[in-house]
Amino acid sequence: MSINRDFAAFKARLRAEGARYSTRDAGGADIAKLSEIIERIGKAFEEFKSANDASINKRDAVTEAKIAKINDELTTLSEMKKSIEQMETRMSRPGAFGGGVAAGVTETPEQRKHRALFTRWLRAPADPHRQMELRKAQKELEAKGLASTDEDGFETRAVQTTTLTGVAGGFALPEIIEREIARLGVDASPMRQVATVRTVGSPDYKELFDINGAGFEWVGETGARSQSTTPDLAEVAPSFGTASARPRASEESIDDLFFDVERWLIESAAEAIGQGEGMAFVSGNGVNRPTGFLTGAPVATADTTRAFGVLQFVASGVAAGLPANPDRLYDLVYALRARYRANARWMTSKLVLAELRKYKDSTGQYLWQPSLSAGQDDRFMGFPIVEAEDMPAIAANAFPVAFGDFREGYLIADRVGMRITRDEITLPGFVQFYIRRRVGGRIRNSQAIKLLRCAI
To answer: What pTM was computed for the model?
Structure first.
């Protein structure tokens, strides 16, 4: 009875602080809804087609409102489907109900002990006994080659660490927690799902690209051989910045027995960092952050004569809108070389996607097709769609739609290691956790991504 009363008080306190507590079963109930949602998507799409076909001959406010409402429903249902599919994936991972061990990761007894002591330290970092235990566990991991940190495990790079957190200092995150944050970040940041991601040990990381390739010729058995053309190498150096998050909780909730500090920390940090990274990978200016693939000055020049590192765009044919018909979209698709089209996909925001749903081919068939199978993406012109809300809206000279092989076209570089500092001084009554890691990004192969520009 006492446990139930304390648990109810804990949930009431969370509600008072604007937080939300929810419970769920092992995923069976949610997964059971998947077929129902897929069926609803199919019905909604049929309604959308009927309403849109009717609007061709009759454009009025009522019809447009009906189409917009169905469009919103399709978007919502698609998001629900993806959410359940992600939930199913997480539930199938080893350790999904037992404490945050990522899929495919075998946690050693030393790592398990270190993670438990780390979580214990988070609740009371000023406790010298807990500090000593955590430091000792960190040393054991280092001695066995299972961890590598700065000296005794405390953050030494930032002078503010000691002034803001006192004796708490800043510890390196346990590898298991760090991997979980990175894994959840993939769900939050669309670019991480489709781009090339490297883990690097230095911000000086670079990749070299052979632009023109080696020379080639056919020769006879005794014919003269010409000297091969020297290939031109281009350097790709991602710009780096520190991605950080500051999840905050009250001191009382941190001390509460029922508050899962580890899970809350992982999900809060992953969501915040994932959203910030997603924006930078699309439109970051490269100043203390990644350089987004839309940054720069895309041109209409074809691959053969365009400078490496500059993207090509195809004009929509409408000064401040999408194409009047799909012809320009086909031009965009076939501006991409065949070698990249095999793994190509669309990237746009959900508002622009609502407009793309209205396009038909020459036979009257809709070019957007919803996914009616679990684990499959919606498609436009036969290619998968990635929804990225950081893509621009429809406007004059904007680039609201991108198409290409993003794994070939964009590079994300993660610096090894993630750090955490506990701060209970800045905001009395609350505990902030300052989590950060170094992340870089830049266009990797400018021939692999094409843009649609709202212009004549």
So the answer is: 0.74
